[in-house]
Amino acid sequence: MIRCFATLRRDQRGVTIVEFALIAPVLLLMLMGLLDLAFNMYTTEMLQGAIQNAARDSSIEGSSSNETQLDGIVTKAVRAVAPGAVLNFDRRSYSSFTDAGRPENYTDVDNDGTCDHGEPFEDANANGSWDVDRGQAGFGGARDAVLYTVTVTYHRPFPVAGFIPGQSKNYTLSAATVLRNQPYGQQTVNAPPTTGNCT
Length: 199
Known about the structure:
Oligomer: single chain
Radius of gyration: 28 Å
Number of strands: 6
Distance between the termini: 91 Å
Strand order of the largest sheet: 3-1-4-5
Low-confidence stretches: none
Number of helices: 3
Mean pLDDT: 82
Helix content: 25-40%
Number of domains: 1
Structural class: alpha+beta
């Protein structure tokens, strides 16, 4: 009996398959994680290229009537890589590039860091209230800077969510570009901003 155990202890047959069984799950998890990362990076690049083309097309004359067509081009390019992706589009126009994403100016009379208690503000987007983003929705007027943002949500092609804590089954990415409209005749020039009071 002792001799059997001694022989079994020295026997190296089958060690490789046991070692592979121990290493394989970690190796597969790393491989899926890398493939998921590469897929997400590729989709981001496709989205960025598609919105650059659509934004250039939207800055020329007559583009405001083709909004659905321009968004359709971006959707087609993204869905070629990520079928079933859900896309959300947002266009906001600004009088200059430096205004993009900035809040409307206001006078902070009580120094509390918020626009409230009747403090005066510059209503840059003419909607009658103070906004964190001074842009107007849409294509804007002549020479306006337009921020075109697309957010994409799709199911991950690799099942990393079940193995890596904190990961979702869906992946969301966003890409944006800002371009200035060409000064063509059909565009209107935005009126200068008015003033108002914060509530």
